[in-house]
Design a protein that fits this description.
The chain has 112 residues and is an all-alpha fold. It has 2 domains: 1-58, no CATH class; 61-112, no CATH class. Helix content is 62%, strand content 0%. It has 5 helices and no strands. The protein has helices spanning 2-18, 30-34, 40-48, 65-85, 94-110. The longest helix is centred in the C-terminal third of the chain and has 21 residues, at 65-85. 0% of the residues are buried.
Amino acid sequence: MGMVYHMYMICISLNKYFFQRPSPEERASFLSKLVFHWINPLMFNGYKRALKEADLFELHSRDQSVNFVPYFYDMWIEELSNAMTYNKSPTFTTKRNLEVFIVFYTVNLGGL
């Protein structure tokens, strides 16, 4: 009986992560994305009352961490190798931050 209860609790907790509402941005038209009309229902709910976790929806698939972690990992490995080559401590400089901003800004603009 304990095993069944344990499996039930796992399924309940997985439902929270795998069965959320999809992002309305993914099925929004170009014009809706351009003027952010796709987010109006969420904004209206937030105006009427405090938002709860259940009111929120999943991130757009292009904004999920699974897409960005490999990129940041590669950049960090490159930074570590440069630091070891020049015998310095690894750090993300302003130039590197600007590169990251430009890359992700263009990726997100490409999603319009």
